[in-house]
């Protein structure tokens, strides 16, 4: 599945009925942004509310297992032939973490797709994923270890065969 990470403003500039109808969306907001709803949850869209933090902080919402489960359930039911657009305010940390883990899960693990993985790498060089979000989502999706560790294991398996 092609996955694109963009900012809220970039999404707003692209958003037309056709764009919305032809893609899948995960929109991430914090509590302060809640009044700026672009659309509600639907068959091709998931709206989540959590902050860009790595530990509990008063007045903020920490990404947790419930958020991860909702993402897992959402990707299980969407059309994989449509692009997945993941956005948050800046399109860097929260959406970057979600997008990177989903690329890892969908394009490198579940059903390897080198073309879609290459699309992710080429079109999302700006991301700096929130490590906490990545770890929680990896756990929910059953992804073990870091990508570097998995690459090292894969190389050693190839060398031994």
Characterise the protein shown here:
- The protein contains seven helices and four strands; from the N terminus they run E-H-H-E-E-H-E-H-H-H-H.
- It has 161 residues and is of the alpha/beta class.
- It has a four-stranded parallel beta sheet.
- It is globular, with a radius of gyration of 16 Å.
Domains, number: 1
Strand order of the largest sheet: 1-4-2-3
CATH topology: Protein-Tyrosine Phosphatase, Chain A
State the end-to-end CA separation.
30 Å
Order of helices and strands: EHHEEHEHHHH
Question: What is the global morphology?
Answer: globular
Report the CATH architecture: Alpha-Beta Complex
Quickly name the level 1 CATH class: Alpha Beta
Biggest β-sheet, characterized? Answer: 4 strands, parallel
Low-confidence stretches: 148-157
SS-derived structural category: alpha/beta
Tally of DSSP helical segments = 7
User: Helix fraction?
Assistant: 40-55%
What fraction of the residues are assigned to beta strands by DSSP?
Answer: 5-15%
Mean pLDDT: 87
CA radius of gyration: 16 Å
Would you count the extended β strands for me? 4
Give a quick precis of the structure.
This protein is of the alpha/beta class and 161 residues long. Helix content is 48%, strand content 13%.
């Amino acid at each position: 599945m092609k996955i694109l990470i963009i900012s809220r403003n970039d999404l707003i500039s692209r958003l037309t009925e056709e764009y919305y109808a032809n893609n899948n969306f995960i929109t991430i907001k914090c509590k302060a942004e809640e009044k700026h709803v672009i659309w509600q949850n639907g068959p091709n869209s998931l709206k989540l509310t959590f902050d860009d933090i790595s530990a509990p902080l008063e007045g903020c919402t920490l990404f947790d297992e419930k958020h991860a489960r909702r993402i897992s359930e959402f990707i299980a039911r969407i059309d994989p032939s449509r692009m997945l657009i993941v956005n948050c305010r800046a399109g860097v940390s929260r959406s970057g973490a979600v997008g990177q883990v989903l690329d890892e899960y969908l394009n490198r693990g579940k059903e390897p797709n080198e073309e879609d993985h290459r699309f992710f790498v080429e079109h999302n060089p700006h991301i700096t994923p929130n490590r906490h979000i990545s770890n929680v989502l990896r756990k929910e999706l059953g992804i073990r270890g870091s990508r570097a560790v998995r690459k090292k294991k894969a190389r050693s398996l190839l060398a031994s065969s």
